[in-house]
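Schema walkthrough. Field components (list of strings):
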Amino acid sequence: MTVMSYLGAIGAAQREAMEADERVIIFGEDVEANVYGTMGGKSRADKGDFLQMFGSNRIRNTPISEEVMVGTAAGAAMTGLRPIVDLSYSTFLYMAMDQFVNQVAKSRYMFGGQASLPVVFRSAMFYGLSTAAHHSDRPYPMFMNVPGLKIMAPASPTDAKGLLRTAIDMDDPVMSFEACMLWGMKEEVEDGAFHIPFGVARTVRTGNDVTIVAISSAVPAAVQAASRLEAEGISVEIIDPRTLVPFDWETVLNSVARTGRLVVADPANRTCGAAAEVSAVVAEKAFDSLKAPIMRVTTPDTHIPFSPVLEKPLYPNADTIAEAVRKVTGTSGRA
Amino acid sequence: MTLANDTLLEMQRRMLRIRYFDERASKMVKRGEIPGTVHTSIGQEAQVVGACMALGDGDYMTGNHRSHGHPIGKGAALGPLMAELVGKAWGVCEGKGGSMHLADFKVGSLGESGIVGSSIPIATGAALSSKVLGTGKVSLAFFGDGAANQGCLYEAMNLASVWKLPIVFLCENNQYALSTPAHTVTAGVVAERAHGFGMPGLRVEDGQSVLTVHDAVREAVDRARAGKGPTLVEVLTYRFNEHSEGLRLAVDYRNAAEKEAWLKRDPVKMFRSYLEEQGIADAAMLTAMEAEIMAEVDAAVQFAEESPFPEPSVAFKDIYTEPFGAGQ
Ligand SMILES: Cc1ncc(C[n+]2csc(CCOP(=O)(O)OP(=O)(O)O)c2C)c(N)n1
Ligand SMILES: [Mg+2]
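Field assembly_structure (string):
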């Protein structure tokens, strides 16, 4: 085991995949200088310089042209490469919406299975860091609405490393939504390469009274809330789906069947968010086991304001998650 | 460039395939035998075949909604294309693409796009594969004069030029985007835009001559294969039919004199005369070739008729490489 940060884990997964397979390449803005740190360590020298290790044929700086970056990756993936595209901020994905939806997601389907697209699109959600409305979005629900894309949203260094490696080795297009807030999170990570399958949730802690399905940065917030609630005598189970497409419904439904209560904590916007989908599926499939209405803890339907005073309270945090749990357990106001 | 007689005859054969296939498709749409609509390449055969035959069999190609000509020009079999047009299981895309989204990966056809301009980055990516993996393949992106005003073209041209990718950007300038005359929406000359990206831009004024198109594109393909990077080739041509079959517009946006002048420059007829004049084939041989291609189209229609319809479950197939997603 090695202590590794979330960001270091992302770097390690990419390095190991590049070493294992010549067809894996990385391109994006400023990747040669590792500006966003997402190739590994804090500096080029720290955890190994990808440009020196793999050369300029496989590590490529691109112009600021997201549309062609995404389409080029799709075309390259159809013809033998396994590109990893670093799109830096998730808000920039919108620049390439046509390529994501009409080409990346549809090419295999529309051409009757002739194409496979082994490609990973990485982007970081820079929320909670005073970057305001143009840099802070958490847009994974938009892409959950597009069949053909797989979506991962890791909330720990281990998951980041194992899921990313699976994504790179997989023959379908994957969008990786990484939480900038978690970049510095550290934990002991298994040595060497390993894979974590898509569609298998992680039960972060077990409990009997309430199930919390938590996504991305809401996972550590839910863990914090759970320890507080434990002191209040409420036993919380936390499930991190880890991949939103495919989604491990079985684990969530089994948990709700036991606890009878569900809180979904999701840093995306509320309307048609990931939490909305989780709530709908549980309501459809496990209505009879519910002892209380499902509650969503999400970012409200607003844009992200600049001032930290305005921004900070918007995302799900330990307080808002704990309060939702108290509501569904009928203990609100007792704490 | 001097081409072998076999190559010249193959050019005529492929142009005839496009002509007869599209004439048949047009009839079938009008009779309701093809659902939706089709966009024919009738009148543009020289431009399509001249470009496609400048490529090798292993080279890549992408195209647009005016889609049948591209895979046919690249050598695709007609049966699965026709079966696709009628939405059948033996269709090249199993009935899920239809007329606007044909693809035949066997011949390097990586897919036509119903979104104007959207396949240009895909061709660019295929060129990147060739460069990184060192396969020596060249990529060709077909797009119309309408698509020439999409931003992704310029992102692609810049990237291809700066990375010296083996790609040819081929603008099929049939002078109209649906009803809109190109000169009313397009500043300057498309081919000249290439210079801003540090790449050659050629304009082929006679896009009705398969040899002229072929020579220009061949030069661009050779340049790409030699590692010298991309070229933009703009070919002037004209579609003989309406934008799409069955479309009736209240305004006659193309004037009669212009249409008449272009109709006289029928690429298939022109090349037939050329082959005869040059003594490459006599009239009897060419007539036999026409009958042979007509029989191919008949067989393609029969193949389409004999094909079963797709099973309902096919609607949920190939969303991913592994079966999941349906009904979740
Ligand atoms: C992004 C997008 N915008 C608009 C359309 C509708 N549309 C389909 S074909 C077409 C005209 C395209 O003209 P051009 O690129 O010159 O090709 P041509 O039909 O002349 O071959 C239009 C406007 C579309 N399919 N995609
Ligand atoms: Mg046009």
